[in-house]
Design brief:
The complex is a heterodimer of chains A (about 200) and B (about 100).
Chain A: H1 5-28, H2 32-52, H3 56-80, H4 93-117, H5 132-141, H6 145-166, H7 172-177, H8 187-192
Chain B: H1 3-23, H2 27-51, H3 58-88
Amino acid sequence: MNLADGVQIVSFALLAAMMLGTALGVVLLDNIVYSAFLLAGVFISISGLYILLNAGFVAAAQILIYVGAVNVLILFGIMLVNKRQDFVPVEKAWIGKAATALVCLGLFGLLGTMVVATPWTLSSAPIAGDDALVVIGKHFFSDFLLPFELVSVLLLMALIGAIVIARREYLPEEADQNPQLTVPERPRELTTGGNR
Amino acid sequence: MELQYFLLLAAALFCIGIYGLVTSRNAIRVLMSIELLLNSVNLNLMAFSNFLDPAQVKGQVFTVFVITIAAAEAAVGLAIVLSIYRNRDTVDMEQFNLLKW
């Protein structure tokens, strides 16, 4: 699965421009719903870069997990925290932003010089390509068996922990004292008439 | 294609993520910036895996691990944001004074 060099360069440039543009949009746009949808653009273009790097399986996993699960989860979080409030402006906020931008540019310069100056010893071994899936599976069940099992336990812990943290405390004594025919989960919207 | 292109791209994405992490005031945007950071690390790992270790692709194995951890992190982070929103009725990072001394 080798594309010609020109096609690779062009698709890399397109994907890089798309990724940087959408990432800047995620950080800089005011409306957070736009940011969440642009985040999907970042994930999809990164998955395209993975395909350029001869890793089809991880590209598919990236789309499935990030776009399908994480991004939808973030969208649900935004819809649940749907308070249309304008943040109180902090005095001299631009100083912090300018300083952060300066630090980030400096960090990028540092990393860039490191990347360019380091003599990378490129390997000339044959590329695994589509057989990478088999190789990854063998790694999972031989030399990465312990991290694999630990990650599965950690996923279970995160699942239970997220449910425990996000669940609203429900007190049965209060509900028994004044029995009302409303849902006890969301009392705030009922009083304010639903502010979207 | 060169290894350096991918590394520079990942460095740029990392810096954008750091900028968003520090300057965002919405707590959910901070979570999104953390996802950007993790994705740039993944891109680094995949580039190393393709150019320096193409036979036994250990970078891809690590990328799968990082993706898993990122999914768990997003779930727990959003649960924490929801919980704080219920208690404080805001998602403004400037108004959180929890865990401060």
